[in-house]
Amino acid sequence: MKKYKIHKGQPESLREEDILKYKDFGRLRHQYDQVTKRPKQPLYKNPYMFLVLVIIILLALMLAGEI
Rounded distance, CA 14 to CA 66, Å? Predict the structure, then answer.
């Protein structure tokens, strides 16, 4: 079993700007959802991402010597 060390020191004091930054729960939730949730539209249905996928596949085929 691992031994854990608990460092008991002075807690860091938060500045007023840091506190106000996280008081807007709607914005915080939106940022959280952007990071954790999958996009609603699949990559192959998004025109920009589809073009990027096609370019990556073509580059991979060119490097492999198939084209």
Answer: 58
